[in-house]
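Pinned message: reference record for Serine protease 53
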Amino acid sequence: MSTQAGADRQELTLSCGFELAISRSATQLSCQRFSQHKGLTHCATHKLVSKNNVITSNCESLLGSKEIKMTNCASNLHIQKNAILCKTYGVWKGGVTQAASSRHGPRMPIKLKTCREQIVTKGKSARMAGLERRFVSTGLLVLLVLLGFHQISSAPALSCGRQKLVPRMAGGINANRGEWPWQVSLQYRGQHICGGSLISNEWILTAAHCFFEVGTPINPADWKVVLGRLKLTGRETRGLESNVSTIIPHENYTHFEKGKDIALARLTKPVNYNRDISPVCLPKSNHRFAFGTQCWLSGWGDVATNVSLPNPMALQEIGMDLMTVDTCNCIYSNLRNRRIVNPALPGMVCAMTPDRQRGPCKGDSGGPLVCLENGYWFQAGIMSFSMGCGQFYGPTFLTETKSYASWIQQHVNGGTFANQIRPLPNTTDSYMCKGCGVLKKNMTGRGPWPWYVNLQYQGEHVCGGTLIAEDRILTAAQCFIGRQEAEGWEVLLGEQQENEKQKWQENRTLQSIEVHGAYIEAKEGYDIAIARLSRPVTFSDSIRAICAPYAKHQFPLGSTCWTRGRSIEPDASWQRGKGKLSPPGGVEVKLLGPKACNCAYNKTSEHGEEIPITSEMLCATPYKWTMRCEAGVGDPLVCNHNGVWFLAGISSFGKGCGTVIRPGVYTSVRAYDEWIMQNAWSAYYAVPKPPLPTASDEDTCLI
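Predicted structure (tokens):
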């Protein structure tokens, strides 16, 4: 539906739950301003015209940006641009309005939401607040009320959670005036400590730990609140400062990691609302947020460890995906730098940026995480703690606001609690934690593997590699010798096999390459490197990280693992060193430790050269005496434990993936656990369950 012909046309897209059928020949509808005063008062009638299946109108003022005072209304009410009254001829039939007779011509269905759904007006979002219908002598009168500061519906107009601007996609960028009018700065003796949110004209909601970590007993006289201000330093004149009369931390709070990290601060006197200062909506205990959708966090926190936000300290905003406690703990359990088990507790909620590259820092604590619903912003969480500055590779942990609705109501009279305008169904975000090292059900060790990548330089295949995070590849150091600059490299991901041909779903360039500093040549060890992708990938069934092993991880020697390669089955040409070459994929091998490998590898050396196989190396041989296989440098050696795949090694040297009497040699990944952690904080890890037995490495030869 569009209004006004020509260059200034604005468009409405209606996405709806029942159908309003309008005949193509029904050329006139009415569109009116209205207010409610002793029933329904119609105002400022405009005509709507149907042409070529598009509803157009001359109601320019209806969608204008200015407030219009309707002097012809009995109530003389000021109404913002957000009310439409539309009338068509028809009869109500089972939730569908249909043309009254065939003389109107073929029906043109227009889908409309059954109350409180989205209407988009030229890039700006508004919401329906309600639907009323009135029967008149000629047919059905349908009222569509766009949610504004005034509305006619069963749900009352809300005085909270409104902003003047729509937020931008961002990651730690400056906010604009009017975006977050509920955001406040909590300051201790003039210094910014935490964020908070305005929830009434005299109460601030924040985190309890803000008041306990300054090192002095809680004294309201030491604190002040800055409201309505974007910049904390410089010549910012907007906004106001208020002293604090009362501070109420949760009575059962002891430490932020144990939950109940919530507190209230009361201003010495109420504030007046304006464009820069207005409250956020608080959810009631039965409120359902849509997990997996984007919400927003704002604050004046540090930009890095011990690096304050530079002057003029402009308010920052970042979009983060909301997630449940279970998903949060699932993601956290795969992180290398985890400190506690299942840190997300009942009464908490989590959020994380999709690329895991950004997040909150010191000074952002206490700030609100807000989610948009039907034109209103509800506070889903209170920023509590995260992984730390510069290590934004895991979830951010927040106090779940709705879990403390009754606690807030006990202390706050007149808080901005609001009913959910359109209750949401229970949602799941389990897809956000696919876990590392997991294959979809119909996949086997033979692949294709979702973690395998093809490293190409100037269009030519050079090495294989393994995806260990959304943005990190683990491979061999020798791949980059002489070409260590990121320029010229390309990574292919998401391998698929079609008619024995390889196809790839995605490609990335490289941002940086990190080769182990001790690497000289493969036979001396340290053959390991990490490549960072130019931008992260999104995990799916065909693109996913493998689990990296901790240093204490024990791979049972002698057990079955898999390497990337092409097996060569014997045939009539086997004796001539040839055979049937299989498609690329997983090849089953037997794992050897350095002692057994040392004996076998050097005893069969073709040149009498003895190469020491160190504890930082692993070896593997094919299971069949009659089989050998081809493998590429950098290809992964992977082992399965109770359905989870771990990266045991990186193909380094030897004859492909080896023969029974001549093992292939791999860099042992667990031996470089600390180095990987230093260069790939985002890597996924897992602990085998149950724990694996200590590996045995008999000093015996295979021949």
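Pinned by admin. Summary line: The chain has a mean pLDDT of 71.
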